[in-house]
Amino acid sequence: MTSPIDKVLARWTEARKVSQNSWRGPCPCCGGSKRSGKAAVTETSSGAVIAHCFACGANGLQIVEALGLEPSDLYPPREAVLAREAAGKRSDRLDAYTGLRLIASEAIESARLILVMGMHDMTDSRRERLMESARSIALTLRACGLREIR
Question: Are 137 and 78 within one domain?
Fold first, then answer.
C-alpha cells in the first residue's frame, strides 16, 4: 500500500526534503521559481498530507489536483488509521502548530477574496473558493480536536 506522501512525491519530483516530515519545491499550481512560488507539503502524525503554496495561496486540494491526484490521496486508508490507533499511535489530530498554520492560510485567503471582490460582486469561482476555504478551516479545526466557531 502506497502512503499519501509517497503518492504526492511520486508526482511532484521537484520537491526536496527540508525536515523529517516536510518537503518544499516549485508550486505545481503557479509553477513558481526557486525564489518565489515555493509550495510545502507535510506528512502529519496520522499519515495525512497537508500542502500550501506561499506564493499563490494554493491549498492541498488545489495542489493535488494540479499533480493529477484526487483529494482522497491526501489521507491514509481507514484501515491504516485503525492499525495506527490499535498500535497506540495517536492519529486523529493535527498538532497545534500545523492546525493553526492551515487555519491562518485559509483565513488570509478568505479575507483577500472578500476585500478584493466584496461578497455581492464575487464571481461564482471566487465564491466557491471562499466556500472551499471555509470548509478547509472547519476540517482543520475538527482534525485539531476543536469545534467550529459559529
Answer: no
